[in-house]
Amino acid sequence: MTERVVLAYSGGLDTSVAIGWLKDATGKDVVALAIDVGQAGEDMERVRRRALDCGAVESVVIDAQEEYASDYLMPALKANALYQKRYPLVSALSRPLISKYLVQTARELGADTIAHGCTGKGNDQVRFEAACAALGPELKAIAPVRDLALTRDKAIEYAEANKLPIEQTKKSPYSVDQNVWGRAIESGYLEDPMNAPRDGIYSYTEDPDPSKTPTEVMIGFEQGVPVSIDGVRKTPIEMVREMNALAGAQGVGRIDMVEDRLVGIKSREIYEAPAAIALIEAHEHLEDMTLERDVLRMKRQLEAEWSNLVYDGLWFGGLKQSIDAFVDHTQQYVTGEVRLQLHNGRATVTGRRSAQSLYDFELATYETGDQFDQSHAKGFIELWSMPSKIAARRAQGQK
Questions:
Q1: At which positions is L-citrulline bound (predicted)?
Q2: What is the pLDDT of residues 253-269, one digit of tens each?
């Protein structure tokens, strides 16, 4: 029996050409594995057939949308995950899930190798291979674009020579990766950081329009997970899809940034992630009301580290799992409702309430009925500033 390699298959140019390229270079039969993580507008049956038409001996499609939303997006939301305070890890979150199924499929079919279509300049090569190393250390990894010199020009020539059923051409203006959490756009004219995005580049969001009537929604949370919109219960995948529609219609979630890649270079990236940006905003405001001050301060620090670890491909690493435990513990009281106004490209919190709130109106008010004893403040300030006062005296005495 011929040895097999399982290829993470997207249906695009590089992975379509990689099927034959891998077969020629390794002599192994190629199994194409496509994972549905909510790629809007993609016919997964068509993707499956395309892999077979390109020479795969077997083509497998797995619908992982529910799992992706529940097991990857909700933990990211609880961690308010934003790499460099902007990027909600649109692509990075899907890679460990795809890797999980790469390893599982390879073992089921007796393959000794996994493959992916990443270049040697990007982050995803690290994410796939680090995750597969953690889950299937016995498996080898091949990246045809990186390891077998499959450049884009060669890929187009190979596809044309072999009459492969692909849709990309040399005129394709940019590269797109998408799933239900958002859409990433890069390359082409966008590589000049001064070039503004052109009309038609966005798909998940409409252009912000101040003349539109604002959309107001009430988001219900239970232990950090969004569970309802305007009182109607939703599953995690339903929450993300509906918020994509509501926030996207108001232009919420467009991101234009220069990003620090894991491999050490800077890259100009365009993202649109309406549900991610709107839900993170709501979740952070509910945490402000329900978490103790020191817990909240530490969580904000660890959120940045969590985002870095996931961006760097260490979803299955020990530190990330330890931070997960901390984050999950903080969410036990993050239950309540947040009112969001979606308008002109922004998601703005206009109200929040929780039975677990630490906000005490009678302590916070400046009106009659104030129960805060202001006479305690003077002594508190004396004690609080004592270390600074002592240090200042020392400094003055040394002058």
A1: 87, 123, 127, 175, 259, 271
A2: 999 999 999 999 999 99
**Structure tokens, 293:** 């001050």
Active-site residue, selected from the candidate residues 14, 94, 99, 254: 14
Ordered by where they begin, the domains of the chain are 4-172 (3.40.50.620), 177-353 (3.90.1260.10), 365-397 (1.20.5)
Tell whether 248 is in a known binding site. Answer: no
**Residue in the block written with tokens 């039975």:** 355
What is the signed CA dihedral for 78, 82, 85, 86, rounded to 10 degrees?
-130
Q: Is residue 148 within 8 Å of 142, Cβ to Cβ?
A: yes
pLDDT digits (tens, 9 = 90+) for 194-216: 999 998 999 999 999 999 999 99
Marked catalytic residue, from 4, 48, 50, 95: 95
Residue from 304, 253, 235 nearest 68 by CA: 235
- Active site includes 385? no
Q: Which amino acid is at 170?
A: K
Q: Which residue has the higher pLDDT, 11 or 246?
A: 246
CA proximity to 75, closest of 92, 63, 102, 93: 93
192 is catalytic: no
